[in-house]
Design a protein that fits this description.
Number of domains: 1
Radius of gyration: 18 Å
Number of helices: 11
CATH architecture: 3-Layer(aba) Sandwich
Distance between the termini: 34 Å
Strand order of the largest sheet: 3-4-2-5-1-6-7-8
Strand content: 15-25%
CATH topology: Rossmann fold
Shape: globular
Helix content: 25-40%
Bound molecules: adenosine-5'-diphosphate, magnesium ion
Length: 289
């Protein structure tokens, strides 16, 4: 099994084939903000962007970080997964179009302390058409988030599965990008185009943006296929692949039905522990304060 390989010296190797590292529990923060903004981005659907946004947000909040999760997909799955109303309430769409100026009028609290949400609904699907003729149309989300950046330690943007204007807005607003990749057929298809898009945004719009890492999701250590895909991903992307690997489990769909992050729905489950580890790893790598 990939996760129990060991070297001659007896060092345990993790699923990425590298020695297992323990990431320390982050020290409490003495002061809060300004936020580091991270987009969860992959133009492929169903790779774990929303699941990672929800559970990483909850895990970071559990470690005392003030977290704002931005639902940036008209499907509204992040809002639903955190039990936040997204119908008949002001959403990110109103902020982008300027019909609501103050993000605080849109931000909702969740059942989790220090985890807030800007919801989205199907209205957002019309946003690109409205923004296309705006001045500095790629920088509109950045302008919105700047207004509340000092209230948070981290802002996570759950992108929609496209590389259109909304995603370019997310990348332009971000300090970092985390790319979720599912350990399945065609996992790597499209990643080159995604990286090219990030590089264009860095050249033309947002020189600070960095790749924070690739997070392998839906990994099933029992299948050769899953292990082979992960091996290939590590071969191609090396150190950009985070140590933390998220296993495949039905607990995730179950937690979505319960409108809770897995960290409160099944806190002892390996999958909850994996997202807590991801939070610790990103703090250890300096992606989050
Ligand atoms: P995306 O936002 O990239 O479209 P989602 O996070 O919505 O992807 O995940 C797609 C589907 O897969 C959802 O039904 C979700 O519950 C499920 N899922 C996500 N991560 C896992 C996992 N590690 N194991 C099993 N199912 C998962
Ligand atoms: Mg999604």
């Amino acid at each position: 099994m990939a996760h129990s390989k060991s070297t001659v010296a007896g060092t345990a190797l993790g699923p990425t084939g590298r020695p297992v590292v323990e990431f320390p529990v982050p020290a409490p923060l003495q002061s809060h903000g300004p936020a580091r903004i991270i987009s969860l981005c992959n133009q492929k659907g169903g790779v774990g962007k929303t699941t990672t946004s929800i559970n990483l947000a909850a895990a970071l909040a559990q470690y005392g970080r003030r977290v704002l999760a931005v639902d940036f997909d008209p499907q509204g799955a992040l809002s639903a997964g955190l039990g936040v109303a997204s119908h008949d309430v002001p959403t990110i769409y109103d902020l982008l179009l300027g019909s609501v100026k103050d993000p605080r009028e849109v931000i909702q609290t969740t059942a989790i302390n220090d985890l807030h949400v800007i919801p989205a609904n199907i209205d957002l699907s019309a946003a690109e058409v409205h923004l296309i003729n705006e001045v500095a149309r790629e920088q509109i989300l950045a302008g919105v988030l700047r207004k509340v950046s000092n209230d948070y330690d981290v802002i996570l943007i759950d992108c929609q599965p496209s590389l259109g204007l909304l995603t370019v807005n997310a990348l332009t607003a971000s300090h970092g990008v985390v790319i979720p990749l599912a350990c399945e057929f065609f996992a790597l298809r499209g990643v080159a185009l995604l990286i090219e898009t990030i590089e264009k945004v860095r050249d033309r719009l947002n020189p600070v943006i960095t790749m924070d890492g690739i997070i392998a999701t839906m990994y099933d250590a029992r299948t050769l296929h899953s292990r082979e895909v992960l091996e290939r991903v590590v071969e191609v992307f090396g150190d950009q692949v985070l140590e933390t690997v998220i296993g495949r489990t039905v607990k995730f769909p179950d937690a979505s039905v319960a409108a809770q992050p897995i960290t409160t729905f099944a806190p002892e489950h390996a999958a909850a522990q994996a997202y807590l580890q991801l939070a610790r790893e990103l703090v250890a790598r300096g992606s989050v304060a």
